[in-house]
Amino acid sequence: MAGLATAALLARAGRKVVVLEKGNQLGGLAYTHVDQGFVLNYGAHAIYRPHTGLLAEVLKRLGRPRIEAPYPNPRTSYFALDGRWGALGPRPQHLLTTSLFPFASRLRLLPLMAHLRYGNPANAGNSTVSEWLDQHTNDPNLRRFFLAIATLNTYTRPAGALSAQFVLRHLQRSLFVKDYVGYMSGGWSTMYDSFAAALRERGGETSTGVSVGQLVVQDGRVVAALAGDRRYEADVFVVTVPPQDAPALAEPGSPLWLELDRWRGLQDVRALCIDLGFSRRLRTDLTFVYDADYDLYYSLHSEVTPDLAPEGGQLLHAMAYLSPEESTNEYLHKRRQQELEDGLDRHFPGWREATIVRRTLPRAQVAAARSTPDQLGSARVPVRSQTARNLLFAGNARDLPYNLTDISLASALEVAELIERELPTQRRRVPVEAVH
Ligand SMILES: Cc1cc2nc3c(=O)[nH]c(=O)nc-3n(C[C@H](O)[C@H](O)[C@H](O)COP(=O)(O)OP(=O)(O)OC[C@H]3O[C@@H](n4cnc5c(N)ncnc54)[C@H](O)[C@@H]3O)c2cc1C
Fold first, then answer.
1. What average pLDDT does range 190-194 have in this prediction?
2. What is the dihedral of CA 193, 198, 204, 209, to 10 degrees?
3. Which domains does the chain have, with CATH numbers?
């Protein structure tokens, strides 16, 4: 997303650009694959503020049409919490009648929502979500509900360790708006195909199956990217790889390597996903369940965006958010998979018999960096390298105050603007040479 969006924006501004992608197809973490008419995104599915947010901004600048992304129905979106079950409803006042909490908790929810809506996120300083909750409520139902909302939006478990400022900023931006979250028609390939089309229309290129192995630095500038026996020369290089993989691009021991090596230890966000294509519409009375007792997520994407499943079928995306321990310890991971399948039995009885397509992603990397207080700010990837001035960074681990794909898109806008400002206009056609 970050690479294609940056490249398309630069091509639109008249620059000559090439995107080098090591995979055999475009899309990265958003890659979309169709199996028997079921549209399976690698992972990403919910785009925040699809019609008024950063995606809309990028499409506008590229002169591309808006992408249809219908919204899930809040009346059929349920939470399960401590044996209770309830929909939240489309407006904040519906929280007063939800069956998810006992009456006393519903009343206590109002001041908490007010803090969320009108409080200044910066006031949370460096505190974690758990610390922020300590200050604002001691109601156990509300604490667990808030943690569930935080995990749901960031994919991070445990959510209590997240930066409160980061979570509040995201929720404030996306929870109280009409254009809150949508599921893209045609899957996420609709988005990256649109970026790639904008790129190619302006003469830009994409090369798949090209894994960059090294960046060659001379006199404080990157002069070439090496991929196998190919050498790519350019005025500017934009790297969007996960930061943990970035050190491998520099010569060991070099100043660039020392700079990039700091990111090797960044703790990432992982999830266990099971996508199921059903031969029939198994449940038509709900679109979404968040099982807050186990941090499990089930969404019938095709009930929101029907073209994601063939006629008469249904597409379910089930997910278990993984703590760092659960993504590395085999026993804990197995237990998580069992919890996810037990939840399928609870919420979607008959799912095994109805399944005609199944895909499991045991440890999908959702984001390269957890947004805990110690992994924000200077711990994150900056826009520019300190050791190679023409080396810029984009992607979902950048130091920008957004969430998930919005970070990738915001970083693309920032990097494209920076290049526009800094490269002299007489060099509008940036030479990108592939020297074999
Ligand atoms: C299960 C799951 C659920 C998600 N859900 C959501 C969601 O609901 N909403 C949301 O907004 N986001 C979601 N995301 C996150 C979203 O998919 C990513 O934030 C976004 O797609 C990241 O794009 P990117 O360009 O920054 O990084 P990437 O997609 O990681 O792109 C990096 C690219 O670099 C390539 N590459 C790596 N090394 C090299 C090399 N040496 N040479 C050449 N190419 C290289 C990779 O192949 C890849 O294509 C989800 C992700 C997952 C996995």
1. 97
2. -10
3. 2-69+185-265+372-435 (3.50.50.60), 76-174 (1.10.405), 269-367 (3.30.519.10)
